[in-house]
Design brief:
13 helices; eight-stranded antiparallel sheet; binds flavin-adenine dinucleotide; Uridine Diphospho-n-acetylenolpyruvylglucosamine Reductase, domain 2; alpha+beta; five-stranded antiparallel sheet; Alpha-Beta Plaits; single chain; globular
C-alpha cells in the first residue's frame, strides 16, 4: 500500500511498531513520518479516502495500547521546536513532536521553565499532554492544566484552532487521549525560570505515616516510594544507605527552591541534583522495562487505599518486586484528566518482566476502584465505559466534543473506541 503524499514525506508499509516497554505491538498498514504540517494534513485526508483509521505516536512510552493501530501510524518527531513566546503573558507555543527534554532546555535559555514535570523527560509534548502527564507537589497541577491553545488536524483533514475563548473544547483537548485529532502546535503557560535542589530521605513506614501531612505541605515537590523489601530497593536502583535494610520503609524524593547558583555549582547526579528546575525535576529514562499501572485517588481516601495495596504486595502478590510510588497532584479542569476537580494522591505499581503480573494488577485495579480511582491514560488500566461514566463527571461532554472534531471516528482504535467512541 502506498500514499500519494509529497515526496519528502517518508512512508513505510507494514512496519512493526512497539512501545518502549515492549508489552504492546502492532503493525500499521502505513507509517508516515511527517516532515511538514502539510504532510500531516495530506496523510489524514488520504487515510480517510482509503478507509484507514489513524493514530499518532509520540515517543511511544505509554504502557497502554493508546497508539496501537493496524491503520495509519503518524509520527511527528520531525515537527519540533518553539514557535512563539509571549513573555508578558507567560505563554509559549511549541510543535507537538518536541520532546520535553528539548523543550525545557530551550525554555531555560529564554528565561522560562515549566511549573512542574514528570520524573522522565523523553516524552513528546503531544504525548505527555494527551495522557495528563504529571509530576508531584500538593500545590501543583498536571501538565494538561498548562494548555491554553492548540492547533490540530481534525477528522476531516481540516486545521482547527481551539483557545481560551472556547473553554469547553479546550478542556476536552487538554487531555485528549489522542482522539481529538492530530495536534500540530500547542500553547502552554510557563513561569520564570527557577532553581531547585533534590533531597532523598529514608524513614521507616510508621514514621512516614506520622509526618505525612507536614512532609507533603513542607516541600514544593514531595514523592514517596514505599519499599516492601530490599529486593524492591535493588530492582528500582534505590541508593540504599550503607548497611541499612529498607524493607517496609519509605524513600522521600523532595525538590525545593534555592537561590540561583552558577553553572559550576550545578549537579546532575540523580539523588543529589541541584540547579535549573528542568533537570532537577526530570531525568533521562535509564530503567529497564517494567509494566506500570497508576491510579489516582482522592486525597481523603488515600491512606486506606495505600494500606490495602500494601496488603496485596505483602500477601498473595509478594512475588512482585517493584515498589509502590506515591505522588501528590492538585485538581485541574481538563475533562478527561484523572485530576479533574480533585486533589489527588497517585498510587503506582508495576509488573516486572518474566513475572506474571496481570493477576496482581487486576487485584490492584479491583482494590483501588473502591476508592473512585481514575487511571493514568498512558499506563496499564482496566477502565470500562460504565466505570468512566461514573468517575469522570465530564465523560459524556468529552465524547460529544470528540464526535464534533472527528465525526467518523478515524482517530479511534480498539482500545479507545469502547471507552470514548
Ligand atoms: C519510564 C517511564 C516514566 C514515566 N514517568 C511518568 C511521570 O513521571 N509522570 C507521568 O504522568 N507519566 C509518566 N510516564 C508516562 C508517560 O508520560 C506517558 O505515557 C506519555 O503519554 C508518553 O509520551 P509519549 O510522547 O511517549 O506519547 P505516546 O506514548 O507515544 O502517546 C501517548 C498518547 O499521545 C497521543 N499523541 C502523541 N502525540 C500526539 C499528537 N501530536 N497529537 C495527538 N495525539 C498525540 C498518542 O496518540 C497517544 O494517545 C512514564 C512512562 C515511562 C515509560
Amino acid at each position: 500500500m502506498s500514499l500519494n503524499v509529497p515526496q519528502k514525506t517518508s512512508t513505510k508499509d507494514y512496519q512493526m511498531w512497539s512501545n518502549w516497554a515492549g508489552n504492546i505491538q502492532s503493525t500499521p498498514a502505513i507509517t508516515v513520518q511527517a516532515h511538514t504540517e502539510e504532510d500531516v494534513v495530506d496523510a489524514v485526508k488520504q487515510a480517510r479516502e482509503i478507509g484507514l483509521s489513524a493514530r499518532v505516536c509520540g515517543s511511544s512510552l505509554s504502557f497502554s495500547p493508546l497508539v496501537a493501530t493496524g491503520g495509519m501510524l503518524l509520527n511527528l518527531l520531525n515537527l519540533t521546536g518553539i514557535t512563539a513566546i509571549d513573555p508578558a503573558r507567560g505563554r509559549v507555543r511549541v510543535r507537538a513532536g518536541t520532546t520535553i527534554r528539548q523543550f525545557v532546555a530551550d525554555l531555560w535559555d529564554r528565561g522560562f521553565a515549566l511549573l512542574n514535570q514528570g520524573i522522565i523527560w523523553n516524552q513528546t509534548i503531544g504525548g505527555a499532554l494527551a495522557t495528563s502527564t504529571h509530576g508531584t507537589g500538593q500545590g501543583l497541577q498536571g501538565m494538561s492544566s498548562m494548555v491554553t491553545w492548540v492547533r490540530l488536524v481534525d477528522g476531516r483533514g481540516e486545521v482547527v484552532e481551539i483557545g481560551e475563548d472556547d473553554p469547553d473544547r479546550l478542556h476536552a483537548a487538554q487531555t485528549s487521549l489522542g482522539v481529538m485529532g492530530v495536534f500540530l502546535e500547542i500553547e502552554l503557560k510557563v513561569v520564570p525560570r527557577f532553581f531547585l535542589e533534590e533531597r532523598l530521605v529514608f524513614v521507616d513506614w510508621d514514621e512516614a505515616q506520622r509526618s505525612w501531612d507536614s512532609d507533603v505541605a513542607a516541600n514544593r515537590n514531595h514523592a514517596v516510594m514505599w519499599l516492601q523489601s530490599d529486593t524492591a530497593a535493588r530492582e528500582y536502583n534505590v541508593p540504599t544507605p550503607e548497611g541499612k535494610s529498607l524493607a517496609n520503609s519509605a524513600m522521600f524524593m523532595q525538590f525545593n527552591p534555592i537561590d540561583p547558583i552558577s553553572e559550576s555549582e550545578w549537579c546532575r547526579e540523580v539523588g543529589a541534583r541541584r540547579g535549573p528546575s528542568y533537570f532537577v525535576l526530570s531525568a533521562e529514562n535509564t530503567t529497564n522495562p517494567f509494566f506500570e499501572l497508576e491510579y489516582m485517588i482522592p486525597v481523603d481516601k488515600a491512606h486506606e487505599a495505600i494500606r490495602q495495596v500494601q496488603d496485596l504486595m505483602r500477601g498473595e502478590h509478594a512475588n512482585q518486586v517493584h515498589p509502590m510510588f506515591i505522588r501528590f497532584v492538585k485538581g485541574d479542569e481538563a475533562w478527561m484528566s484523572p485530576f479533574y476537580e480533585r486533589d489527588t494522591v497517585t498510587v503506582s505499581v508495576a509488573g516486572h518482566p518474566g513475572v506474571e503480573y496481570w493477576p496482581y494488577l487486576r487485584d490492584v485495579d479491583r482494590t483501588l476502584k473502591q476508592f473512585e480511582a481514575r487511571a493514568h491514560w498512558g499506563k496499564l488500566h482496566l477502565m470500562t465505559r460504565e466505570y468512566l461514566e461514573a468517575v469522570y463527571p465530564r465523560h459524556g461532554d468529552f465524547v460529544r466534543v470528540r464526535r464534533e472534531i472527528d465525526p467518523d471516528g478515524i482517530f479511534l482504535n480498539d482500545h479507545t473506541r469502547p471507552l470514548v467512541g
